[in-house]
Amino acid sequence: FLSDGDLQAIGLTLRLAVAGAPCGLCGAGLVFYEHSHGKDWLLCPDCGLVAHLPPAGEAAVLDQGEAGGAKLPPDSLVHRRERFFCDLFLEAMGWTDVLLYGVGWSLVFEQLRARGVHAVGCDLWRPLIRQRREAFGPDSFFHRDELPEVSFDLISAFEVFEHFASPLRDVRVLTSRLRPESAIVGCTDFRVGGPLSQHPGHSPDYWRHRTHLCAWNYSSMNRLARLTGLTASYFKVFLGSLGAKVFFVLHRGPKTAAYVQSLPKLFRKAF
User: Fold this and answer.
1) Cα angle vertex 211, ends 172, 177, to 5°?
2) Which of 144, 68, 152, 57 is nearest to 112 (CA)?
């Protein structure tokens, strides 16, 4: 049997082996940051991204969808927040083509389509994709790696960016589908400073979630925007306990920029 000291030494060796891997956003060498929520977290000292690098055997798990959103009522928060921010742009900008990225089983997909919005879904779990295509048609839902080379006005990615194993690669999939006047809108828990073990988010288990791999902050999101030719803007909503939740818009085009700048920085009655 291994002693506690042996186990700690093995753990340290594994952490040092992972440290030095390139950051999935900027390519700089990662350094060990902390062990918390059952994971080893690495920090990029250049762009500020904190990431967990999952073992190769977890790849199949990361691609599985989650049915939780579909089990909640249509007016629950998980649906209202995405509809609210989509509607901000659809109504004001007159946009009609929306890609719902990482939408899973969320009801927002069918809610927008029922209103006549050209909403296309995208996810990774093939059983989910197959069921969505059977219900809504072959051109309604796609795997990320099979997404057609078509352009969208708006891409919605709510509670998605924390799942990216290769952030720059994954976001470039999105930016390659944006029109000259367009936006990506989403939200995620931001790392507001200090270790994730002291994270002030709405749930202490947010970073324990097996597919939550990236902890963004303003520095890393701004770097992402520069690398993809977009501008990053940030908003908060008045939700009390969701103190670390940040709503972001990655956008391009002068008309879109002017509209984003006109929006309030704090939405007190968003939901």
Assistant:
1) 20
2) 152
Helix (H, G, I), strand (E, B) or coil at 204: coil
Model pLDDT for residues 176-220, shown as the tens digit of each residue: 999 999 999 999 988 877 788 887 665 667 888 888 999 999 999
Residue 137 backbone phi and psi in degrees, to 5? 110, 155
Which amino acid makes up residue 31?
V
Judged by DSSP in three states, 169 sits in helix
CA atoms within 13 A of residue 56's CA, in its CB half-sphere: 0
Which helix (H) or strand (E) is 214 found in, with range?
Answer: strand 214-215
Give me the phi and psi of 211, to 5 degrees please: -105, 10
Query: d(Cα 263, Cα 268) in Å, to the nearest integer?
Result: 12
Contact 160, 185 (CB under 8 A): no
Contact (CB, 8 A) for 214 and 221: no
Record the pTM. 0.88
